[in-house]
Amino acid sequence: MIYLDNCATTKMRRKxxxxxxxxxxxxxxxxxxxHRLGLKSEKEIKKSRQIVSDYLNVDEREIYFTSGGTESNNxxxxxxxxxxxxxxxxxxxxxxxxxxxxxxxxxxxxxGFKVTYLDVDSEGRISLxxxxxxxxxxxxxxxxxxxxxxxxxxxxIKEIKNIIKLKNSKxxxxxxxxxxxxxxxxxxxxxxIDTFSFSSHKxxxxxxxxxxxxxxxxxxxxxxxxxxxxxxxxxGTENVSGIIAFGKAVEIMDKNKQEERKxxxxxxxxxxxxxxxxxxxIKINSSLDxxxxxYILSISFRNTRGEVLLHFLEQKDIYISTASACSSNGTxxxxxxxxIGLDDLEIEGTIRICFSYENNxxxxxxxxxxxxxxxxxxxKIMKR
Amino acid sequence: MEKVISVxxxxxxxxxxxxxxxxxxxxxxxMNKTKDIRYDKLYKEQGKIYIEANEEKFESLMEKLxxxxxxxxxxxxxRVEKDIEAIEEACILNMKERLEKDPxxxxxxxxxxxxxKNFAFTSPEISREIGKRLLNKFDNLNVDxxxxxxxxxxxxxxxxxxxxxxxxxxxxxxxxxxxxKALLLISGGIDSPVAGxxxxxxxxxxxxxxYHSYPFTSERGEEKVKELAKKLSMYTGKxxxxxxxxxxxxxxxxxxxxxxxxxxxxxKFMMRIAEKIARYNKLDALITGExxxxxxxxxxxxxxxxxxxxxxxxxxxxxxxxxxDIIEIARDIDTLETxxxxxxxxxxxxxxxxxxxxxxxxxxxxxxxxLDVETLxxxxxxxxxxxxxx
Lengths: 384, 390
Hints:
Chain A: This is Cysteine desulfurase IscS. Chain A is built from 12 helices and 13 strands. Chain A is α/β, with parallel strands linked by helices and about 375 residues long.
């Protein structure tokens, strides 16, 4: 199998699976239980929290475990809005956000909030000037996706924070870090981020676990009520084995990150090189420079269909993803691909390749060869 | 006094000498449909079927019975001795229960059906007597013989009297299998499952054939159609499902025939393949979801061309229906939501921009001369997959 859909999800590392298996068997106590078994689970969670906070270089009391990226984004935005709605009702975000942000914003709009959606330029980056213009006295929150999940653009969070400080320093900065956590170098503290969401299954950990960083001095109220686990921010019995395995995944990632990032960047370069050499009439949407994630490569093949390519490749046990679904009743076109200037034909023929440490150059050679054959066959039919 | 469920057979009761056969088929299907629910006894009495069961199971039993074709009404009823006092007691009990649920009931009418002509009173006498007693018992109720809020039904049968005031409408129609077997051309759209449902309701036992163009269409598209077949199987019982990849056929047509004829020629191939499958599996007709004029291939000329490719009967129960009415049925039989899922079973790559709307049999035949029809059909059938949907 050649798995190149690592932005959708990743395969768990063997070591992480072993850790999870053994914790399922042994650490089944409820961390809230008073007995020794409960204490053992509590300590294991604490260990994971330590690993994550060490990796992010933040205080462990600033990390809350959740059920994943979507929940983290929801808790952050809804809690911030709940506590600050008296100060103002204006929110700023971009129109290239993940559904968990976009749909939360849509919901807030029905409740009387005003949301500004910033456009992006031909590389998928927001204009700092637009942001400056958008911030006003009513603004309470700026929510930005760190690494875009379709083409891999990295937003300049540092500059964004500078503008916030300049225009209205009370504005909270939430960063959706689902595709940046563990994949690029940055420091939450240096960037001045107030809340930051991340997920386990994008870094070879289990699904159903994620986390939220909340800056120490930020007082947020929960959106779900119950037994006050996670210091009241996220009630509900902890996903003990998931959190333990997540910790393990972060630990291994942290140890190998420099080497792995170099490896995937080289794979990305090699993939572009091979595709450019072997397949005509294409457009590379993700640059190799450090303004893009090394893990994500978006390419458009004119006169093909992304979804048909995907199904051709799955027959060869190769897995990629598309930007849009093939549909006769109005294809839902990706906003970011439109924003970076692709025409409809290019958007239809766009695929996304997302690497991991597990891929190697032989995989890429085989993949590009199959890709070339598929593109040729589809074009034979479509060019008629 | 016991609570039982009664089932009225409607159209079946008219079927003369075949009646016993139809009733037996129906009982078989009722037993099959309700086999997961433990009831105590099922019996026939003078044109109706009765089920004895714990009252707690009535709700789930009636839910299952509603999906059995050939039933007209289902009623929870009280069974008593054929004695006027016992009948009165049952009517009072039933009325009390109904009033508790719906205090808006102000008027009623007693409607008696005496199948046992030896019973001491006539139907009107029973109705009048029970009506009088109910009036005495319930101060707030009045009789209205024209437009009552509630009908109190009394059936006097050979062994017992049955009292009920609720009639839950079932689909009617004929028991599955009593009208033969046919092959439904099913897609992921709204129409074909409805067409299948309508023929099944007339007693036709269904098999399904589905066409796809993988990898130009997705496996999810096929899963969606299987899901639709599964919804149909709630009414029909298990369904044999043939899945045929026609990508090679579409590629050939795409390469060798005029673009605007793509759809109509593909359609002819689907009919040919369906006929082959039907004949081989002893299915006596094809069913399609076509509705006149709905799309280019469903014009009168289009249908003439597709019909010409087969000699087996083709049933098109939706031919004269409007889309809104088809959607209404789809919603009712619970296939609409699944049909509205986004996965396509025909890739837009193969859809002509301007499909021909008035094709002639001769022109299309001439275009098809470029194709090795027989080999293409045979290859598609050789590679088809068969599933049992239940």
